[in-house]
Amino acid sequence: MKVIGGFLETTGWCIYLGGILTMEFVWRPAQLDLAPAQTGILCLQMGKRYKWLALAGLGVIALGGRFLYSANWQLYIIAIGWLVLVGLVILMGSLVHPRSHAKSLASADEKDYRELRSKRLALIALMNKMLRFELFIALFVALVGVYYRA
Amino acid sequence: MTSSVMQVFASYLHLIAVAIYLGGSITMEFVLGPAQKYIPPAQAQIVGQKSADRFLLLVWGSLALFPISGMLLFFSLGDQHMVSKGHFFNTSYGQTLSTMMFLWAVLVVNGLVITFVLRPKLTSKLSGDLGMPSAGDKIKLLESTATWITRITRIDLAIALVIVLLGASLSYGNGIL
Prior knowledge:
The complex is a heterodimer of chains A (150) and B (177). Chain A is mainly alpha-helical and 150 residues long.
């Protein structure tokens, strides 16, 4: 059972951590060469898919971890970190990211449009900070997990 | 203590390397790839090419990191006795380890094929450096190259999953074979 647990936990971390690292070091620089309108479409579509992939990764980590960990201080850190990561993915995937792609109404005037634009830019900036924080937490929790097994 | 620190460091590097390879491939295949269908083909080509170029750098980095972190891990765990004196092919541990090495070599070969054979074909077609008689033939060649890249990428994904399973069997036992 420990082998299966180890396989699931490692696969979960691969899906989750590999996804964040790819988004950060592949997608983020690649989008700089795209037209803003296309970036928006691609970003929205990727966000929809990525949310489920990240949650699946975190789910597989929890499933595998059940076979591996017993109660001690490392487990508490891992569990708290895992909950923070789940919270961040749900918050970003269901609230911040969709709102950062909100469209203006057909009846909107110039002032409404500017307000919406500044709101979207603020949400994008918040999203970027959250993504960096998520990456930091994920790397830290993975390190604690490795330390636990060593 | 030093050995334990080295063990944590090596295990962490090993995890990051496999995460970049496996998780990155999954993200490229199931997140970025399908999303490209929502933008015009010319823009999809640009983002596809740029992201593939950057991802290939990560892939080669992680493929290089596998054996380095793996060796560090192997020696920090003090597992040398498990494969010494002809035990490499006679024990479950040795057979599992040698299978992992063989599969890693397959990933390297597939990586070489994609990087130096298929990708240049695809990019030269995209940039108009052709020499084919008709547009239909060009498109066919382009499609067949893209199909082969997708096939090889999926085979690599399956191989990477098997490597993770074999690695888990070494971490939590004495191998699976």
